[in-house]
């Protein structure tokens, strides 16, 4: 799956302009609505900030995708895959927004994630043996991107980069260019200073869309590419879960122990940490482009191990409370 600028430009449609306008309007509407995220002990922010910016991203994407596909004369063969994705995103977005407004038990959110992932996987035409790993991977990726959405611009930037690079391989370029356009429209509202947060209503459906890209082109290597692009996120979440499990902590309990959170708590600037995770996504693409699995693994693993060691060393001396 070579990267190509031509593939990227083939996904550009007039509907992208409509998506920019609609995304901005919905985000401004959510800022005015004033549904606030109040800081708590585990929060990285210190003042109440509007949330629900993901409604602008996801809403613009869902509404503009059908006309974009029509404009690009997309093949009817992709209709089942697109339908499965949109059904999954709408379901997950609805449940996530309800949870953003009035939180409810995690088991209901997890159930919605599985149902949404199944809908997305069915649309790709996956066989039953393929469905199980696809769905499990999609749920993990969805949660990982939700967990990583804790400082300004990190999750939205990583997902925008991932969407652009997936499109550049020729994988559903119309869909992934449009998704990147919506994410990039949101980014100025959230980075470097946040006027609004994306919220679960954004991170979870978009996480599902990125995972769906891995399912859709799995036979051509897109699954491996998604893992490479999200390597920084996936490593952070996996390492944190393993560390907390070893310490006997409840894994479902909210915390501030992710590597990116420890880096900020130890004194590193938020924009620096965010840009570093964007760099991990680009580095993952470079590692994938080598075409050699061992080289790719080494290129991804070594920086992650170095980052982990650096952050943990800083945290031991600079973070006073338990982590």
Automatic annotation (TrEMBL):
<dbReference type="GO" id="GO:0071555">
    <property type="term" value="P:cell wall organization"/>
</dbReference>
<dbReference type="GO" id="GO:0044038">
    <property type="term" value="P:cell wall macromolecule biosynthetic process"/>
</dbReference>
<keyword id="KW-1003">Cell membrane</keyword>
<feature type="transmembrane region" description="Helical">
    <location>
        <begin position="12"/>
        <end position="31"/>
    </location>
</feature>
<dbReference type="GO" id="GO:0046872">
    <property type="term" value="F:metal ion binding"/>
</dbReference>
<keyword id="KW-0808">Transferase</keyword>
<feature type="transmembrane region" description="Helical">
    <location>
        <begin position="262"/>
        <end position="280"/>
    </location>
</feature>
<feature type="transmembrane region" description="Helical">
    <location>
        <begin position="163"/>
        <end position="189"/>
    </location>
</feature>
<protein>
    <recommendedName>
        <fullName>UDP-phosphate alpha N-acetylglucosaminyltransferase</fullName>
    </recommendedName>
</protein>
<feature type="transmembrane region" description="Helical">
    <location>
        <begin position="52"/>
        <end position="70"/>
    </location>
</feature>
<keyword id="KW-0812">Transmembrane</keyword>
<keyword id="KW-0472">Membrane</keyword>
<feature type="transmembrane region" description="Helical">
    <location>
        <begin position="209"/>
        <end position="242"/>
    </location>
</feature>
<dbReference type="Pfam" id="PF00953">
    <property type="entry name" value="Glycos_transf_4"/>
</dbReference>
<dbReference type="InterPro" id="IPR000715">
    <property type="entry name" value="Glycosyl_transferase_4"/>
</dbReference>
<feature type="transmembrane region" description="Helical">
    <location>
        <begin position="110"/>
        <end position="128"/>
    </location>
</feature>
<feature type="transmembrane region" description="Helical">
    <location>
        <begin position="134"/>
        <end position="151"/>
    </location>
</feature>
<feature type="transmembrane region" description="Helical">
    <location>
        <begin position="286"/>
        <end position="312"/>
    </location>
</feature>
<dbReference type="GO" id="GO:0016780">
    <property type="term" value="F:phosphotransferase activity, for other substituted phosphate groups"/>
</dbReference>
<dbReference type="GO" id="GO:0009103">
    <property type="term" value="P:lipopolysaccharide biosynthetic process"/>
</dbReference>
<feature type="transmembrane region" description="Helical">
    <location>
        <begin position="76"/>
        <end position="98"/>
    </location>
</feature>
<feature type="binding site">
    <location>
        <position position="146"/>
    </location>
    <ligand>
        <name>Mg(2+)</name>
    </ligand>
</feature>
<keyword id="KW-0460">Magnesium</keyword>
<feature type="binding site">
    <location>
        <position position="200"/>
    </location>
    <ligand>
        <name>Mg(2+)</name>
    </ligand>
</feature>
<keyword id="KW-0479">Metal-binding</keyword>
<dbReference type="GO" id="GO:0005886">
    <property type="term" value="C:plasma membrane"/>
</dbReference>
<keyword id="KW-1133">Transmembrane helix</keyword>
